[in-house]
Amino acid sequence: MLDTMLSRPQSLFDQLDAMQRLLSRSLGAEAVPGGIRSVAYGAFPEINVGRTPTNVEVFAFAPGIDASSLDVTIERNVLKISGMRASAIPARDAKVQLYANERPEGRFSRAVSLPDDVDPLKVEAKYRDGILRISIALSAAAQPQRIAVK
Amino acid sequence: MADRNELTNSKPAESNQRPVSPAVDIFEDAGGITLLADMPGVSKERLDVKLDGDNLSVEGRVELDAPAEMRALWAEVNVPRFRRTFTLSRELDAGRIEANLKDGVLTLRVPKLAHAQPRRIEVTAA
């Protein structure tokens, strides 16, 4: 699996390195350098990234957030998602008994490196059912083109 | 990578794939118990809240409206199904459970039976 991931063109996401490091650690190969932006598994929000012929699609699994509190920026090909998730638990007092508190709360922020061939000016972000979807168009030069034969 | 593509293509999950347990907050106040569960990507149509005897189960299927030709580059979420089961206790009024789903968070309110509401017990000096 590691081989197929590494052979993907444009797989420059630092999180790949996190997995690679995890694998290499278990294999004892500490020499593999890790991406400077890779984070430990289980960070909030969790992120999936996909690629189509025309776009890079980023899905952030961030349920229960007021869309107006989400802040999405792209600077020098680094996509940053930050925001605030309010706690649902009422103020602790003698009348409230807390049994489980597994849901992350408070301020969060995550950053991912994008491939080099995206166009940072063509971005769309939508929030639906707790998933933030960010579509970034590939630059014109990176999109498939039909060449007319004369 | 095959199972990752499955999620991004929103194909039906294999039935043998184990669902993931959603993160929950559970707290109790005088009137009952409130449960919140993180189920991002689950819409109302794909959510199932079932009560079987004392067992309350919540189940939801994740839907990503991803283009069919998309291939995964990186996936931290690759289980397209959430499921978790809770056992209710007797003093709860299972017939009056309220469920609300908003922005991928399910909120369940399980009220207590009227006779189970807290009352103060007078301590008398002997």
How many domain units of chain A? 2
> What's the domain count of chain B?
1
Q: Shape of chain B from CA axes?
A: elongated
Q: Which spans of chain A have pLDDT < 50 for at least 5 consecutive residues? A: 1-12, 28-32
Secondary-structure-derived class of chain B? mainly beta
The computed structural class of chain A is mainly beta
Compute the number of helices of chain B.
Answer: 1
CATH topology of chain B: Immunoglobulin-like
Strand portion of chain B, in percent?
35-45%
- What is the CATH top level name of the largest domain in chain A? Mainly Beta
CATH architecture of chain B: Sandwich
CATH topology grouping of the largest domain in chain A: Immunoglobulin-like
Helical run tally of chain A = 2
What's the story with the biggest beta sheet of chain A? Answer: 4 strands, antiparallel
**CATH architecture assignment name of the largest domain in chain A:** Sandwich
Helix content of chain A: 10-25%
Strand content of chain A: 35-45%
Level of helix content of chain B? under 10%
Radius of gyration based on Cα positions of chain B? 19 Å
Mean pLDDT, all residues of chain B:
83
Brief rundown of the structure:
By secondary structure, chain A is mainly beta. Chain A is built from two helices and eight strands, in the order H-H-E-E-E-E-E-E-E-E.
Layout of helices and strands:
The complex is a heterodimer of chains A (150) and B (126).
Chain A: H1 2-6, H2 14-27, E1 46-51, E2 55-61, E3 71-75, E4 78-85, E5 97-101, E6 106-113, E7 118-128, E8 131-138
Antiparallel strand pairs in A: 1-2, 2-8, 3-4, 4-6, 7-8
Chain B: H1 2-8, E1 24-29, E2 32-38, E3 47-52, E4 55-61, E5 71-75, E6 81-87, E7 98-102, E8 105-111
Antiparallel strand pairs in B: 1-2, 2-8, 3-4, 4-6, 7-8
